[in-house]
Amino acid sequence: MSRLSKSQVIRRYYLYRATARPNFHYPVYTLFLLFNGLSLPQIGLIATIQSVVVVTGEIPTGYVGDRIGRRNSLAVGGFLMLVSNASYLVATDFVGFTFTFVMLSFGGTFLSGSGSAWLYDTLKEHDDEDEFTYVSGRSRALSRWVQVVTIPVGGVLYSLDRFYPFYAGVLAATLSLVFVLRLPKNRMYDDDYEADADEDDDRLTIVDALPIIRDQLRAPDLRWFVVYIALFSGAIMTMDMWIQPIAQEALRESFGPTLESWGLTEGVILGLLYSSFTLVSAVTSDYASDVEDAFGVRKAMMLVPAAIAVSYLLAGMVAVLAFPMFFVMKGGGALTGPIQNRYINDQVQSVGRATLLSSVAMLRSVAGIPFRVGSGVLAGMFGSIRAVAILGGIFLVGAALLWLFRPPISEDYEASRAATAADADATAED
Q: Spelled out in words, what is the top-level CATH class assigned to the domain 6-188+206-425?
């Protein structure tokens, strides 16, 4: 383990998360693709290719993370993100932008499992894994606070020059890569660490990878939770792809023309809108550990997704509620992320942690594919806002059946956590 103290390590982690995804291009990348001559079907095809890359890449890159070390895996992902940002500056056609987004998705697979695994094991090495939700939530909040500034700046930069947001993205990706290389390695990957005599080499071999994934995913405490978050990711978080068309339509029918008459272009307006969503995510993510303490993991993972789904139904009935729905979706997603990652990490062993977490991310991506396709069909039949409402209804029905017949989180888990906390308090008093 690094000689750095826990506070030093966490500060470095926060710097990395703050610069990892500033999203200067987030509110305008679709406009940029259309400007370069891509059609909407081509953009949809690129999104499908991204899903395939994620599905096929998650387990191999998770395995690589367990072999080369989680910090090194984050560095590889950061480099691919840098390549993706830079390719925006030279891509001019469908093939070029497909490469851009493939690099983005492939880089993301290196980050998805390794980031959470690195943080959990780092805290565990300091005997402080109970702080995972707090640190993870705080880091997400910090990332969102940065995006509150960078997203509208990206919209303004796009108004000045279409390439400026992507120059800014290259600079931020370079800075993030520097910060990730300053993170310490986990103890089992640190060449300077000498293992105790009774401590085995925990590095995963290719022979071990698939049995570990199979056995841990089949475990009762994890199996139905994975099904639940796959349903949540597919039916609820798929709505993210509909924010721009719903927002654009709502703006054009309401006060969008007035804002444009004030000199606010579509890029600036969308930048401000996305920034406001991100602001809500930043605030709510910072309170993830408080929500977990107040309600417990079980109730939090039951109530927050249900609240998001209800907001979808309400927006489908009253169109003006679409904008509050955006905030509920973004805020609720920011709350559940650290809590669900804490639960998954609690259920798995350190050996193969990144591989298992990447496998869960892969299953979520697989679940998202039919929901993406289905929501597109529903949007064509009923309109995008009603399609979202239908997705909300599907989630509520599916979630109710799961909690009734196959609870994703058992009451025993909460009881064991409470007992552990009580023992820790008693030890502290002694």
A: mainly alpha
